[in-house]
Amino acid sequence: MERFSPYPTTSGEESGIEPVRAYRALDGKKEKDLLAAFTPEQQREIRQKQQVLSSLAYFIGKDFRIPVELNEPGAGWHWNFQENVIRIDPKDLLEKPMDYLRFVISHEGGHRRISRTDFIPLEEWGQPGFSFMMNAIEDPRDNNFVAESYPKFKEQMGLAYKEDLDFEAKAKEKADQKLGYRPRFMQAGFEYIKQWFREVEGKDVELSEDLPEEVKAVVTATLSSARDSWLRYPSRQEADKSEDLIRKYAQVSYEINRDEVWPEFKKLIDDDMEDQKMQELLKDAQKNQASDESGGQGLPQELKDKLTPEEQQSLQEAIKQAIEDAKKEKDKAEAQGDELERAEGKPEVDSSQGSQSGKPVDISSLPAELKQKIKEYIESLPEEEQRENARKAQAAFKEFEDALNEELQGKLSDNPEKKAGREEIEAEAAKQPEIKGKGWEEKEKEREEEARESRKRIESLFEAGEKDPYHEALEKVSDLIDALTADLRDIFVKRKIEKHEVGYRSGLRWNIRQRIREKVAGVPLFKTEAREQRESESEEMDYAVTLLVDLSGSMRSNGKIQEAFKSSVVLAETLNNLGIQFEIVGFQDILLEFKSFEEHLGEPMRRKLNQMILEVYGTNPEGHNNPGDNDDGVALREASQHLAGRIAKNKFLIAISDGIPETSYKDREQLDRELHEAVAEITANTNQKLIGLGLNSKTVATYYENNISGITTEEMVETLGELLREVIEKY
Fold first, then answer.
1. Short-list 561, 516, 545, CA closest to 688
2. Alpha-carbon distance 33 to 43, whole Å?
3. Is 672 helix (H, G, I), strand (E, B) or coil?
4. Which one of 2, 75, 333, 642 has the fewest CB atoms closer than 10 angstroms to its CB?
5. CA pair distance 45, 48, nearest whole angstrom
6. Cβ contact 256:232 at 8 Å
7. What is the distance of C-alpha 207 from the center of its chain?
8. Does residue 360 lie in a domain region?
């Protein structure tokens, strides 16, 4: 939350840096527009404080280039990783005490110093509620770092915390207005912050009395892990020494959140989503009832049949109350705005336009048995209606969560969603040679244009108006990916629990009890003996997987390439979610590389994988395009060499093929012999587990000792999913 953290000294007290050197305000018309609402005296005060705070931000963030700019008045404080800029609220500069301003700017500088999220898979970050959970725990972690590194500002945390309580009250009010209930996940996130502050004050754990029981249960079950996570921050010396150490701390903190907090926290998300589905149903009923004078026909007849007369009346009254409240708010807003609109020459709005049903029903006012019957009714709806209801619920839920994160997200401004949006341009830019005699802006425009043209060449080969093959396949197999990810995650979590000694975590082994004793004794982190023993970074890093896909012309028939491609999507997304290293390659007469072990699965890579389908048809722009040949032996050897270079205990090479090797330059006997020899050598001389999957074919059984042959196109995706589950569970 932009209202948190401890702080260092002013301008030059410790840093020796002149304030003006670190200070950079917005230029030109935008800056003038922002300051126009203030008097000349206020403008001078804003400028002076901006300079002082700019120096402080540099001192904490250790980034001389980081500017401090003015945000829109009332828009809060924000660190934007992408632009590497801290934006401050000019209203706060005038209204808040200087101690508070120092604390907040140091907090934002602290995020610049230690907050890192670019290693988190986009699909994981995008789960409803996940980013809010991360933000709620990251905030105390940052506060701890700044307070320990710059003790002079530790006492200011109380002032900032009180400001945060105001934000919580506003968030609850907004939830009542927008959702009709207070999401459990929101209450849990704020409770973590409250308990962190009790810890700062030396108080014992004492949960807020007004928390729902299910929220208390989750916070109780996860608080020790959340605390473990927000204590995983570098010392000032470690942060000064190495970016690598900063990232390692951030990753360990994230892994604790993911493995120990999220499974319980997600239960609250699921419950909240059920409430939101109910609210979406009631919105439709509300609209119908608002246009029905009788006031009773808004409810679906099938739902009314499930309710007693008393329950029907209770629900109809709640809907009616929401309609009346919406009308009152609308009339009040119109009355306040009419005079201003007339003065500005704007046309009057027809009062008959717009819905009077824009306020959600107060779900908390409904009896528990009634809410249960509504949920059961939703579950009885046709599948298509349930999907539409869920889609609306997820959209409303995301909108609210995004609004919460805007308040919390200075620290994680460069979250995985924003990072993914930059990757394509950065990747293309890195590949292009330097163009002499042109400014960087002109060169960047040319590179972006080349990237756009390249995308257009690929996209033009797919039907207009259709989703690209990858995202179309992803939509179809998303449920399998989610289930498979959850199952495999459970396997890893259980292993960690069984394997690790009490008091230790993954990565560098930590003995928490010993570290606490060290902290009491004043032992700095860089001298700690609580983490001397090392083990692998994580169980997931003990695996490496190569998927080798036949891209010969025979894969065109009976939808084989489409199913093999969907299988590739399942493997890619699942292993990416788990942080398991993987490679996806295809083969014709040579090995065709699509996704290497080193490359990140971002949107550019997902688009690149679409080229697998084009290779089968020989239409891949600038591709190999030789679907007439498939030399399995050569491709298998090279794929095995790639896999051999990975550091992992368990290595799997999975080959998908629909027939025998065949090329125009080798006879059948030679191709057959070479494939047999490749399989034998890999089996005898490496620790790789080699598995052949025969798509509408049983020929893999003649080459691969470990094989599943005769897989139909309908079975392919599920078969690969089960195979992944089995090999990870057994090895």
1. 545
2. 12
3. helix
4. 333
5. 5
6. yes
7. 28
8. no
Residue 557 lies in a domain: yes
In terms of domains, do 217 and 271 share one?
A: yes
| H helical segments located in 344-439 | 368-380, 383-408, 416-431
Sequence-distant (6+) residues with CB within 8 A of 412 are 111, 115, 117, 131, 134, 135, 138, 405
Most confident of 60-74, 450-464, 582-596: 582-596
Q: How many CB atoms lie within 10 A of CB 639?
A: 26
Give the number of domains in the chain. 5
> Within this chain, do residues 452 and 521 fall inside the same structural domain, yes or no?
no
Q: What is the DSSP letter of 152?
A: G
- What residue type is assigned to position 333 of the chain? A
Q: Which domain holds residue 428?
A: 418-459
Lowest-confidence pick of 360-369, 511-520, 639-648: 511-520
Mean pLDDT of 186-198: 93
Average pLDDT over residues 503-521: 53
> What sections of 24-76 are H helices per DSSP?
28-35, 40-61
What H or E segment, with its residue span, contains residue 709?
strand 707-711
Tokens 């030399």 locate to 631
For helices 184-200 and 262-290, angle between their N-to-C axes, nearest 10 degrees = 140
Q: Is 654 exposed, middle or buried (0-12, 13-18, 19+ CB in 10 A)?
A: buried
Packed helices 213-230 and 262-290: angle between N→C axes, nearest 10 degrees: 140
E strand residue ranges, 151-199 = none
Query: Is the pLDDT at 442 greater than 80, yes or no?
Result: no
Chain segment 97-150, per-residue pLDDT in tens? 887 788 778 887 888 889 988 889 988 888 999 989 998 999 899 988 888 877
Which parts of 507-559 fold into alpha helices (H)? 512-521
Q: What element of type H or E holds 650?
A: strand 650-657
Question: pLDDT tens-digit profile of 196-228?
Answer: 988 888 889 999 999 999 999 999 999 999 999
Give the three-class secondary structure for 707.
Answer: strand
Inside any domain, residue 364: no
